[in-house]
Target: Glycine cleavage system transcriptional activator
Amino acid sequence: MKMSKQFPLNALRVFEAAARLGSFTKAGEALGMTQTAVSYQIKLLEENVGEPLFLRRPRHVSLTEVGEQLAPKVTEAFEILKEAVASARGDTEATLLISSTATFASQWLAREIGTFQFAHPNIAVRLVANDAIVDFSKESVDVAIRSGKGDWPGLISHQLMRVEFTPMLSPALAETIGGVRTPADLLKLRIIDPRDPWWPLWFHAAGIADPDLAGRPANRLGAQAFEARAAVAGQGVAILMPGFYSDDVALGRLYQPFDLRSSDGHDYWLVYPHARRNTPKIRAFRDWIMGALGPDGLA
Model:
C-alpha cells in the first residue's frame, strides 16, 4: 500500500485548517484552494478514517464527535512538524505574540517582560493589550492572559494570581471629608464606575447591604488601570487590586483605607491551546511567568 494512502498528509492539512477555522471556504482561502478542492480532500480523509468528520449544514460546518477527537491531535502534530522543520533550518528567532488584559499588561507584564527577553534573546515579543477574548483558532496569538475561572474548553490554564479588590483613593481626597474612617464614609465621595460589579460585593462584605450605587452617574473608563489614574488625580474612589499599585501607595498617591478585600471568583490565568503546549517558545514563557509571580501570585 502506498504511503499516501496510509497517511493522507495533504488531506490532514486541509482538515486541520477547516476544523480550526470552522469553514471549508475559509480553509480554502487560507490554503489557496477552492472550496471544491477542500471538500474533496475532506471526503478522502473521511473515507480513509471510515467515519464522517464534519456535519454539513447550509453555510456552516461543525465537527462530529470523531472530528472533535481528531482535530486537536492533528493540530498538535502539525505544530511539532513546524517546530522540527524550523530547527532543521537552523531558525533561531521566533516571535511570541501575547494577548493580555490592559490592566495586567500595563501594571505588571510591560514592566517585567524585559527579564524574559534577557533570558531568551532569540524570542521576540509582541504584546497586544485589550480585554477582548482572543479566539486562538482564528488569531495568531500564542498565549493569553485572561480573567476568569480557568475553565476554557480546549485550552490549558495556569493560575497566575488571585484577584482581590478593595477601595483605594488619594489621601488628599480623603481629607476633603475629614478622613475615611468607616466604609459608609466612601459614599460621601464620588465613586469611579459605580456600575462595576466589584462595588456591591465589597460593600456587602463590609456590612453595607444597599449602598445605592445605581442612582450615581454612570461612567466607565474601560480598564482598572485608567480608574487608578483617575483616583491618583483625586477624581474619586476606585475599586482596585492593591498589589498592582504598591508604587503609588509607597509614593503617597494612593492609599487603602480598609484591610478588607473581596473576590468574585475570577482570577488571572495564562492560557494557550492544548495542542501547542509543547511549543518551545510557549514553554519558555510559561516557565518564566510562573516563576516570576511565584506560587501565590502578586500579593
Notes: The chain has eleven helices and nine strands. The beta strands are 54-57, 60-63, 94-100, 123-129, 143-148, 155-161, 166-168, 238-240, 267-273.
